[in-house]
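Hi there, hope your week has been kind to you so far. It would help a lot if you went through both lines with me. No rush at all, and the record is pasted right below:

***
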Amino acid sequence: MVRITPRALIRFQMPRQGKPMVYPYTIAAKWSHWNIAYEWKMNWTFRYTIYGMMTVAPFVWYIDSTVNSPSAKAAYKRVKQMEKEKEHEQHRWADISGRNANR
């Protein structure tokens, strides 16, 4: 039975079992060999990507909640209905050749 210690959970490491693979073929094996502490310390692109996602997430959440509100959905439906009616009127007054008839 494998016991996972709290320290292993904090360090984001899976417990070691047996001999390490020469090359980790599966995705789970690749993730278990990945050292997040080393990436955080040595890879500035990884670190700033995380910072950027944390910075942008509140703005994305606000825009998403605003756009998907019931009032915004109703306004969008109203605009689409008006566009559909306008398109219908334009086609209604068009003659066979495709040009708009003089009214």
User: Anything to note?
Assistant: DSSP finds five helices and no strands in the chain. Residues 44-67 form the longest helix (24 residues).
